[in-house]
Design brief:
The structure is a single chain. The chain is 75% helix and 0% strand. It has 242 residues and is mainly alpha-helical. It has a single domain, classed as Up-down Bundle (Growth Hormone, Chain: A). It is globular and about 65 Å long. The model has no long low-confidence stretch (mean pLDDT 90).
């Protein structure tokens, strides 16, 4: 009779570790996307909306500096509108998922749907040999913004403090706050540190790929997201069933 709760506790511990690994993987993906987006798509971010809002303010103000090119308004808005639409769509998908486990199935569904704009991005990118003209850049930014918005809203449903996968500000706040209060557990500290390291790894990998294998660089975040969706659908679903 005692084996059942022991098995349940073991499965929950494994599910927690897998969840954190998947969050790290998604953070690597978004880090790579922002690096590629900024360097190859007119200096606009696809996930880091704070930076885009700052760029938009600079453009509206007409501010400039020698050697600094502020992205155009339409280019910035392409990413921001795509992101907002992605958040809306994903929220509609995951809305019924409240209280349905550590990683609700609808989160996996939302991430699976986000693969559609990822795939369309790759098709358009390859069709332009990785050198898109400005009007195509706007399309690509809206596609990746859509995917990142969907990812952000899906991850938000998990209610993991300080983890958003598409931005590090909240994570840094929680990490530094813990240094002041020392209230987090060892597992929480590892999780937060893992997110920050993952974002750095993703940005580094995206930059390196863009320099050394330019046309294949966007394949990395797509492949990572595919792996996350597959792992969540197979491994986490299997743990819940057992």
């Amino acid at each position: 009779m005692q084996t059942e709760p022991m098995t349940r506790n073991h499965n929950q511990a494994v599910e927690l570790r897998v969840r954190d690994l998947l969050l790290n993987a998604l953070t690597v993906s978004s880090g790579a996307i922002d690096a590629i987006s900024f360097l190859a798509l007119s200096k606009v971010f696809s996930a880091f909306m704070t930076g885009n809002i700052a760029f938009l303010g600079l453009r509206v103000a007409g501010a400039s500096a020698p050697g600094v090119v502020v992205p155009g308004v339409l280019t910035i808005l392409a990413a921001m509108v795509g992101f907002a639409v992605g958040v809306y769509i994903s929220t509609q998908i995951v809305k019924p998922a409240k209280g349905s486990g550590m990683w609700p199935q609808r989160v996996t569904v939302a991430l699976g749907v986000s693969l559609v704009p990822h795939a369309v991005f790759l098709a358009v990118w390859f069709a332009n040999n990785g050198q898109p003209p400005i009007h195509v850049v706007n399309i690509l930014l809206s596609l990746w913004g859509l995917a990142m918005g969907m990812q952000s809203a899906a991850v938000r449903t998990l209610h993991v403090e300080g983890v958003f996968t598409t931005a590090a500000t909240a994570t840094i706040i929680v990490v530094v706050g813990d240094i002041a209060n020392w209230s987090a557990t060892v597992a929480e500290r590892k999780r937060l540190a893992g997110v920050l390291v993952s974002l750095l790894i993703g940005a580094t990998a995206g930059g390196l790929l863009l320099v050394h294998a330019h046309i294949y660089a966007p394949v990395l975040p797509f492949a990572i997201t595919v792996a996350v969706v597959a792992t969540a659908a197979i491994v986490l679903r299997g743990l819940r069933k057992s």
